[in-house]
Design a protein that fits this description.
This protein has 9 helices and no strands. It is mostly helical. The longest helix has 50 residues. It is globular and about 85 Å long. It starts with a helix and ends with a helix.
Length: 182
């Protein structure tokens, strides 16, 4: 074999190795994105359930709103089942709101946390009243999510997040959740 053939074979082998490595990295990235999205969805649905049942009773209005949010997110059947299952089982799982917030924050950043907080206020108000225990939990969740001081009062007074769909997607929010942004 001459030197040119050896160099060509080495180059082809290197291209193959790099291509295989890129495919592996891409597959790992897709799998990692799916795992992170599941943590995000589990945190979201767990916190929604905690708010809905903070007053001791999940009303039909609160449950219906949660299911509408899950349906509007255009989730796969398995993702929707994960959210609904987490929403239903959250009262028995022994996890506190801070635990669900940690799951959410494993994927979300400030923009995502702010949007989630807005959704939680929406759930809390679905039955037309804000119970004292819901109010206290919302105050605690603002802290768990690392929102700036004053966020609780601002959202209590009707603040809406000022993020666009594009900003939410850029912040790592699953596209299906970002689609809910006004």
């Amino acid at each position: 074999m001459n030197l040119v053939m050896i160099i060509c074979l080495v180059a082809v082998a290197m291209v193959l190795v790099l291509s295989i490595q890129m495919l592996k990295n891409r597959a790992c990235g897709v799998a990692e994105d799916k795992v992170m999205k599941n943590y995000f969805l589990m945190g979201l649905s767990g916190l929604m359930a905690r708010i809905a049942m903070a007053d001791g009773c999940v009303t039909n209005d609160e449950a219906d709103l949660a299911y509408r949010i899950f349906n509007n997110m255009k989730l796969s059947d398995s993702e929707k089942a994960l959210c609904i299952g987490r929403f239903v089982s959250a009262r028995r799982d022994g996890l506190e709101a801070r635990d669900h917030a940690k799951r959410f924050m494993a994927y979300g950043n400030f923009v995502a946390c702010e949007y989630l907080y807005y959704l939680l206020w929406t759930i809390a108000g679905a039955d037309g009243r804000l119970d004292e225990s819901e109010d206290k939990l919302l105050k605690d969740i603002a802290m768990y999510l690392g929102l700036p001081e004053g966020s609780y009062e601002a959202y209590k007074n009707g603040k809406k997040p000022r993020c666009s769909k594009a900003e939410l997607i850029g912040a790592g929010v699953p596209e299906s959740l970002a689609a809910l942004a006004g």
